[in-house]
Structure formats: C-alpha cells, structure tokens
Design brief:
The structure holds two protein chains of two kinds. Chain A is mainly beta. Chain A is built from two helices and 13 strands; from the N terminus they run E-E-H-H-E-E-E-E-E-E-E-E-E-E-E. In chain A, the strands form three sheets. Chain A has a six-stranded antiparallel β-sheet, with no helix packed on it. The relative contact order of chain A is 0.11. Chain B is α/β, with parallel strands linked by helices. Chain B folds into three domains: about 110 residues, Immunoglobulin-like; about 180 residues, von Willebrand factor, type A domain (Rossmann fold, 3-Layer(aba) Sandwich); about 80 residues, no CATH class. In chain B, about 35% of the residues lie in helices and about 35% in strands. In chain B, strands 2, 10, 13, 14, 16, 17 and 18 form a seven-stranded mixed β-sheet that branches. Chain B has a six-stranded mixed β-sheet with strand order 6-5-4-7-8-9, sandwiched between helices. In chain B, strand 16 and strand 17 form a beta hairpin. Chain B is globular. Classes of the chains: A mainly beta, B alpha/beta. Chains A and B meet through strand 1 and helix 1 of A and strand 3, strand 16, strand 18, helix 8 and helix 9 of B.
Chain lengths: ~350, ~425
C-alpha cells in the first residue's frame, strides 16, 4: 500500500505508513452483519475517541493511544466458517504435503518449502490401492478449500483441560490433513494441536473397510484387527434392511432413510444444526466431524456421496473427496469423515 | 540443547475468539539467564573517553570525578582500564593496563580541569586506540564516552570512528550530560558501534548512571543473541519491541518462508531481555492451535561456545465462548500501555521534526494521557509542556525533547 503522504510502499495491511506514520486509508475488514449469534467476533477496534481503525485484538488505539475495549466481543458474528486455509493434501506419494513439490524418498523435509515430510509414510499414500473402486481413478482434489478444524469444541476444551499424553500420534493433521511427523505436538502447517484434548482421542484404527481390503493400520495406530464386518454387524445389531452405515469401531449400524438426501454430521443445537445422521455418539466430536459433513443421496438402487465442504474432509476408499462434487457410492465402500470411519452398505 | 537461557512466553490472552477477521495478539517473550550465568561477570577492557571542555566547569566536572572513582571501584583488579580526556585536543591520561597496576589513576582523575572547546572525534580516536591495544575477544571491550555539548565540525569523523569501532567489536556507550548535546549524533555513535546512548539529565545523575553503565557492560555475558520465530502459515508478525532493559523497536528480518529473526545483541546476566511481539492471527475455527515457535541462538564468549535454546511452542485456543476470551494478563497490559506511550512519543518527535506541528501536538497530548494513566506524572508533564511549546512557539525545547526521548524508553524499568 502506497502512502499518500510520502509515497513509501507499505505492507498491504499496514494501518500506518512505516516511513512517516501517516494513517493509510484502509478498508479494514468490515464486520459482517450478524448472521448467527453463536460465534462472537472480536471487536473491530474502532477507537471511540478518535475513530481510528485498529486491528481486532489491539489494546490501544494506534492513532491516539486511547485504550480499546479488546475483551468485549460484539454481537456481530459469522455464520459460515471462513475458508482460510488451503491445505494441500494429495494422496500422491513423494510430494510435499504443503507445497506439492516432488520429494526424494529419503527426505525428511521438503527441499522447496522446508515442510516436514511424513517420515514414516505408511499413511494413505503408502497404502496399496489395489482394491479400491473406480473412484481412485479420479485425480485427487488438489486443493480443497477447507476451513481449519473444529477438532475441539469449547466444551470439550474445558472439560478435557490439560493435554493427555496421547497413546498414539496421528500421522496427519486432523485439522487440515497435512502430513505430520509422529513426534510433532502441533501441525507444522496450520498449527493445530496433534496431541492433547484436540487429538488425544484418535480413534483406534478401524479394520479397513471393504472386506476385500486388508489394509494396513495407519502409522501410529494400533494394528488393525481383521474382522469380518458383516459378521460383527450381525452380532452387535439387528441387521437393518435397506442402505445403512456401519461403524466398525463400535459395531453400530445407522440406517439411511431414503429416498432423498441424508445429511451426515454432528448435532449442534447451539447453531441449530440437526443432521439426519448424528455422528456425535460415534466419536464425531473428537474425530473432527463437521456439523454438516457430507450427504448421501439415496435413489433407486443408486447412491452418491458428496462432501459438504467439511473442515476435515470426507474420504472415500482412502481418496479425498472434492467438496461439493457428488461421487457414486457402492456397497462396501469405506467412508471416513474426519477421523470417523464408516462402511456403506447398500442393503 | 543448552539451558543457559530460559525462554518464557506469555500471551495477553490464552484464548482468542473465533472471528471472520484477522486479529492481533501480543506475546511477551522473556529470556532469562540461568543462575550460573546470572552470577558471571565479563572481564573488562574499558576505555573512558571524557569531555573536559569549558562547559563542564563547576558541578559537572566535580560529579564526573566522583562518578569515575565509583565506577573504577566496581572494577576488579585484573580488569583493564584506560582514561582519555578531550576538549579541542585529546590526551591519554591513563594508558591501558590492569587496574592493579594503575597506581596513579585516582590522582589523574582528581587533577582533571575543565576548559577549552569540544572536538569529540579526537578523544574517540585516542580512546578507541587504547582499548584496541589490549583487545580480547572473550572480554567486554568497551568505551564509555561522556560529553555535555556539541562537537564542532567533526561529526562525520565521529560517525566514521563509531562505525570502525563496531567493526572491531568495541561498543561505545555514549552518555550525554545536560541538554545541549547532539542526541542524533550520540544515538548514532552508540548504535553504529553496537553500543547505546543515554541521557544524564543533571550533574546529580552522573554518578548513578555512570556506575550503571559500567555494571551493564560487566553483565553483558551473552552476545549475538538472536531469536527465531517460526510462524505457522497465515500468521504474520506486525512489530517486535524490546521492552527490557529499555523499550526499542527491534524490527525483524524474514529468514525463510515462515521464519523471522530478531537480533537481540548482548544479553544482560541478571535481567536478560524481554520482547513484546505483535502477531496478526488468521481466522480459525475453534480449537487449539500453535501459532509460532520461538527459539534463541546465542554466544557465550566466556565459554567460547555458541548455543541454542529449546523451542517454545506458542499455543492459542480459538474459542466460541466469549467468557473464555476475557482473561487478560495484567502485566502484559501494562507493558503494552508503556510501549504505546513510547510509540506515541516517538511518532510525535518524528512528526515535529518533519514540521507536522498539529500531528506532533496531538501525539504528545495522547502520550501525556497514557503517561498519566501509568503514573508517570513527571513525564506526562514534560509531554504536555512540549505540546504547549509546539503550539505556541512551533518547536520543542531541547531539554524536553531529550527527556521524553530517553526516559519513555525506560518506562519498563520500574517493573
């Protein structure tokens, strides 16, 4: 931003000229009108004394020095989670999870951007993909616009308090999906906590999905118990008639009532979100399930799944779904919403 | 991983609201030497360069003699010391030698007489040569320069010498006495040489400030310290302030896609240094996020080693519950207020110099309000007085300008 007074070129978000201190005419991010009352916005920091515009969170006016009321959040709020992050998560081996640059197999850090490369990469990328269905043929969504993770609700953060020693660290960030080294406490890319309340609850690895896929456990996860899914389902719950979701971790089954669209997510009365299928009892909260995570369209013997721009993405047979793009769903397909694994059964 | 220095990070609030806009957060980063380091003192190779021009007559030269005796009393027998005096010519009255062998030193100081003009570069040149003769990498090689006036026609030479001193790792601590000296010149002499500059308001203050300066030099046991802040994506630094020992805008240099480095220079054995970092945070959804990691690299000349501290994670909780956001750290609030007063004052002086009388006056009044809130009545009065001077006479007084300039940066010292 060019200073109107002295012509000095300042950073685009500068409020005052670095050179002469002139206030720079700046449309400081206007507060959106109140949309929903559940998310407070920091006060925009307009000085009540001189009208100077300050960054939210600032304690004193940059112009006149008057104290700004930092603490009190205004009623103005945001409804939709701002999509700020563009994590690059690609199931392509040997590429930097952050910048996508090609990496050598032995590299611990990306030569281009310096990001830590998942050293022990027996993650999705390393999995044999022999048995996955035709969806894998589709190119992986390159940069799904994904907002950072609500891995932790305020309630959860309060109740859980101190981070617990995580028995196993995730190999990918539950928030943005970037690959992380097993010993990292925080995601290198988005900074989300990988251990502690936010991530300590990494669910024990599900026996991999489709009966045909004897997939290896993910890094850091306990070894998968091979299980005959159908059998388990039969034992633990009355086998529902019609399409349903099977939760390998708990053995529960969730009927999908069609025809039409079935919204899967996490119930949140606070924001008035009541999905058809609530994954909260199935580890949805800790597993990073968005309130509106994905939907399944139930038709005449045909099914489709569509990610609803969820924070932690939806994975179909270990391929990340592009948000908003419906993809055919088949019996036995493995669905992962954040960290919660599900198996789709057509009938 | 060494533990000579402890790094502690405090946030002005541990949790921030989930917002759709960017927001600012303040970090207080304190570097504190451990107990062993805090007791060590640097061996000194100290050169005094003292102004004895005519204007020093009377009280000033009397106090200077007292101050010299006291300062020398702080040195150890094997510290090296030299004394150079100048007016319009310069003379070495005590050649560089260990204090134990400087038998005639007290006598020389007692015999100091004020008189003549001021040509500071001559004193600097001889004094620096004395220190350089016994230069030792592992010691504190310093010049303490005291003047009470303007130097005549040799400013450029003074700056050249200061720069050379810096290149040879001899820091000049420049002290200005009274209100007639050239602060722009002394500031530059200090910073070019890797030292500092300070104001001694009146003759009465010569003694304490002089001894403080000597002590500070002895305590500079950590050198070439630099802090690396590794920021996660979308987090950007706005400003980096040093808050102790004195307030200063440190600035930062990007050293990688996400890393910025802040040069800290020397660290004091007892106090260390603390920084106030203003970071602009991106919108995030609720959850716990690391926003940055801080790490410190430094040299310990006494041990002939370089080391790095552990990495400190700086973590913020984004919350949707406003009740959780309201926890503010009072210490940090106070520091931010002091830095704000300093910032307003600095901008006022800059604007006054550029001829923006109205802007400068407003800033001075604003600074006065902040100073008053902080209980700094004396400084608040000075700021208001200078605002009056600007309005009435169109310019600030030399003494008031110096007082504001050198004392607002010490606001954090009463902590």
């Amino acid at each position: 931003m060019k200073c109107p007074k002295c012509g000095n070129e300042n950073q685009s978000d500068a409020v005052f000229c670095d050179q002469c201190g002139q206030r720079l005419a700046q449309p400081v991010t206007p507060l959106p009108e109140a949309v929903s009352a559940d998310q407070p916005t920091a006060q925009a920091g307009t000085c009540t004394r001189c009208g100077g515009v300050n960054t939210p969170g600032e304690l004193f006016c940059g112009e006149c020095g008057a104290p700004l009321e930092g603490p009190a959040p205004e009623a103005a709020a945001v409804a939709a989670a701002p999509a700020v992050m563009q994590p690059v998560v690609e199931p392509v081996a040997l590429a930097c999870p952050r910048c996508g640059a090609q990496a050598e197999p032995d590299d611990a850090f990306c030569a281009k951007c310096g990001a830590a490369l998942a050293a022990a990469s027996t993650t999705e990328t390393g999995q044999p993909t022999a048995t996955v269905n035709e969806q894998t043929a589709e190119p992986a969504p390159a940069e799904p616009s994904v907002a950072p993770a609500p891995v932790l609700s305020p309630e959860a953060s309060q109740s859980l308090g101190e981070p617990e020693a995580a028995p196993s660290a995730p190999s990918e960030c539950p928030s943005c999906g970037a690959h992380v080294a097993p010993e990292d406490a925080f995601c290198d890319f988005c900074g989300a906590a990988l251990v502690g309340p936010a991530a300590a609850t990494v669910t024990s690895s599900a026996p991999a999905a489709s009966s045909a896929t004897p997939a290896k456990a993910e890094t850091g996860m306990p070894p998968a118990q091979p299980a005959d899914l159908t059998a388990t389902a039969a034992v633990t719950a009355p086998t529902p008639v019609g399409p349903h979701l099977f939760v390998p971790d708990s053995g529960a089954t969730i009927a999908l009532l069609g025809p039409g669209e079935v919204l899967v997510g996490r119930e949140d009365p606070f924001s008035n979100t009541f999905p058809d299928v609530d994954l909260t009892p199935h580890g949805g909260e800790a597993g990073g399930v968005s309130r509106r995570h994905f939907k399944i369209t139930v038709g005449e013997g045909q099914f489709a799944i569509q990610d609803l721009n969820s924070t932690n993405a939806t994975w179909l047979n270990r391929t990340r779904l592009q948000p908003g793009l419906p993809v055919a769903l088949h019996d036995g397909d493995e669905i992962r919403a954040g960290k919660v694994k599900l198996v789709f059964r057509a009938g | 991983m060494a533990n000579e220095l402890n790094l502690t990070v405090t946030l002005n609030k541990p949790s921030v609201p989930v917002t759709s806009t960017q927001q600012l957060i303040y970090l207080l980063i304190e570097t504190k030497p451990n107990e062993v380091i805090s007791r060590t003192r640097m061996p000194m190779n100290l050169g005094f360069v003292l102004d004895r021009s005519g204007s020093m007559k009377g009280d000033k030269i009397k106090r200077l003699k007292e101050a010299m005796s006291l300062a020398i009393g702080r040195l150890r027998p094997d510290d090296r010391v030299s004394v150079t005096i100048f007016n319009d010519s310069a003379r070495v009255v005590a050649r560089n030698d260990t204090l134990a062998r400087q038998s005639g030193l007290e006598d020389q100081i007692r015999r100091l007489q004020a008189g003549g003009g001021t040509q500071m570069s001559r004193g600097m040149s001889l004094g620096l040569r004395e220190v350089y003769r016994q230069f030792n990498e592992g010691w504190a090689n310093q010049v303490i320069l005291l003047t009470d006036g303007q130097t005549y026609g040799d400013e450029a030479q003074c700056l050249k010498l200061a720069k050379e001193a810096g290149e040879h790792h001899i820091a000049i601590q420049a002290l200005g006495l009274g209100d007639e000296w050239n602060e722009a010149l002394l500031d530059q002499v200090g910073s070019l040489s890797g030292g500092d500059s300070d104001l001694i308001e009146s003759a009465d203050e010569v003694v304490p400030l002089f001894t403080q300066t000597v002590e500070r030099s002895q305590q500079a046991v950590v050198r070439d310290a630099a802090m690396t802040l590794r920021l996660v994506s979308d987090v950007t630094p706005r400003q980096v302030w040093q808050v102790t020992p004195v307030i200063a805008n440190l600035g930062y240099a990007p050293i990688g896609e996400h890393d910025v480095q802040v040069e800290l220079g020397e660290l004091d054995a007892e106090q260390g240094k603390s920084l106030l970092v203003e970071l602009v945070l991106p919108p995030r959804q609720a959850g716990r996020f690391r926003i940055a990691q801080a790490q410190l690299g430094y040299d310990l000349p006494l041990e002939h080693t370089s080391d790095v501290s552990g990495r400190s994670d700086i973590v913020v909780d984004y919350v949707t519950d406003p009740a959780l956001v309201r926890t503010y750290d009072p210490t940090l609030m106070n520091i931010v207020e002091k830095v704000t007063a300093f910032k307003l004052q600095t901008r006022a002086l800059e604007e006054a110099q550029q001829g923006n009388i109205i802007g400068a006056t407003q800033k001075l009044r604003a600074a006065a309000t902040r100073l008053l809130e902080l209980g700094e009545d004396d400084l608040a009065r000075a700021a208001n007085q200078e605002a009056d001077n600007l309005e009435q006479a169109g310019q600030m007084s030399s003494g008031g300008t110096k007082k504001l300039r050198y004392q607002t940066r010490k606001l954090t010292q009463e902590l």
